[in-house]
Amino acid sequence: MEPVERGKERVVALVDMDCFYVQVEQKSHPELRGKPCAVVQYKTWQGGGIIAVSYEARAYGVTRGMRGMEAQKKCPQLQLARIPQAHGKADLSKYREASVQVIAVMSRFAVIERASIDEAYVDLTAAARQRARQMEGQRVDSGLLKTTFVEGFSQNGQAQQSGDPATLKEEGRRAGIEAWLDSLPPDCDQNSPELQLTAGALIVEEMRAAVETETGYRCSAGISHNKVLAKLSCGLHKPNAQTILPMCSVSGLFDALPVGKIRNLGGKFGESVTEQLHIKYMGQLRAFTESRLHMDFGEKTGNWLFDLCRGVEFEPVRARHLPKSIGCSKSFLGLQALSSCEQVKHWLLQLATELEERLNHDRQQNQRVGKQLSVSVRLEGSGKSSSFSRCCALAQYQAQRIAKDAFELINGFNTAANHQTAW
Fold first, then answer.
1. What is the pTM of this model?
2. What's 33-73 look like in SS3?
3. Is residue 23 predicted with pLDDT exceeding 60?
4. Start and end residues for every CATH 3.30.1490.100 domain found in the chain
5. Quick one: pLDDT at residue 144?
6. Which residues have C-beta within 8 Å of that of residue 182, sequence separation ≥ 6?
7. Rounded to an integer, what distance in angstroms lies between the CA atom of residue 304 and that of residue 334?
8. Average pLDDT, the chain
9. 12-17+95-251 adopts what CATH topology?
10. Do 349 and 403 touch, CB atoms closer than 8 A?
11. So what's the pLDDT on residue 162?
C-alpha cells in the first residue's frame, strides 16, 4: 500500500447554518418563509440594526449592518423580525437553543467541534474510511450526492448558454459530479484520499438531511482535508448545498483568492503578509521559499504559510459540543456612551444578571462550573479605539457579586479622580 500524500490524511467538513437567525424566525413565523426578510436588534433608531438577511432580501441589495429603514427603501416588501430583549440588551436564547438542537443531530455522525452558534467542524476521517471500505470496488451512485458540487469539476461553462440560471447551475453540478466520479480509481481503492472525500460527502449529505428532517433547519457544508479548505469550500455554493474541495483544485482556486479570505489570515497578520511580500493572492505565496518565509515570519509561522499556500494544514478538530466560555456584552455608542460610575455599575449588573441566568442553566444542563471571570472593555474616542481585559476567580454564580468583582477589575482604568462620580 502506497503512503498517503502529505496533507491528504484526513477528511474534514465545516457545516454552516444558512442565514441561521432568519431560519429560526421563519420557523416561529412560517409566513416569513420564501419572502425577503431580515433580523434586526433594537428598535431605537431607524428600524434597528440588521444582523441577518434572507437570500431573497440579498437579491435586492439588503446587507448586514444596514438599518431597517434603509433596507426597506431598497426592498419595500422586506419583513423585519426583531430579536427579543432582556436586561436592556438583545436576548439570543432561542437561537442558542436552536443551535443545541442542530449540534445534537450532527453529533450522531462524527466528531464535532462547535465553532460558533451557527458553525461546526466535523472530523469525518474514521467514518469516511469505514464507508470507503464498504464502497470498495463499486461505483458511487451520483444520485446520493444530490446537493454536492466538486470544485474544479463543475461545468460552469454551460452557464453561458441561454436558459434558466438555476437549471444551468444544476446541469453543471451534475456534470461535475459525474466527471469527479469518473476520475476516481477504477477499482475504487478504499485507501484513495479522493474516494474517502467522496465517502465523507455522502455522510454529510445524510447529516444535513437529518438536521433538516429533525429540526427544520437547512445548512451548507464544505468537505476537504483540513479546516482551512473545509471552511473555504463551504462558502462556494450556498444555500442548502455542499462542496468537495479536492487537493488537485486548490492551486487553481488559490491563484485568484485574496489572502484575507483564508481562515486566520483575515486580520492584521494577513495584511502584514501581503504588505511584506507585496502579494495579493494566496497562490502567489508559492513563489517564496521556506527559508524566505522563515526569515520574514519565524520558523513556525513560516512553515505554516509554506504548507498552507499548497493546501496543507494540520490543526485538529477538537471534540467540543459546548462553547468554551459564556459571555454577554453591550456597546454604548455616541450619545449612549457611559460617563458616570453609576452608569457603569448599572450596566455591569444588567450583564451580570444575564450571566448568572446562563451560568445556572449551563450548570444544570451540562454539569460543569465556570472558574474564571473575565471583563473586557473597549474605549473609543478621537478617531481611535483601545481595549483591555482583566480576570479574576469567579467566586459564585450571583449577579451582585459578579458585578462588584467586575467593577473592581476595571475601576483602575477610570481616569477621573477617586472622589468624582464621573467615568
1. 0.86
2. CCCCEEEEECCCCCCCEEEEECHHHHCCCCCCCCEHHHHHH
3. yes
4. 334-413
5. 97
6. none
7. 42
8. 92
9. Alpha-Beta Plaits (3.30.70)
10. yes
11. 64
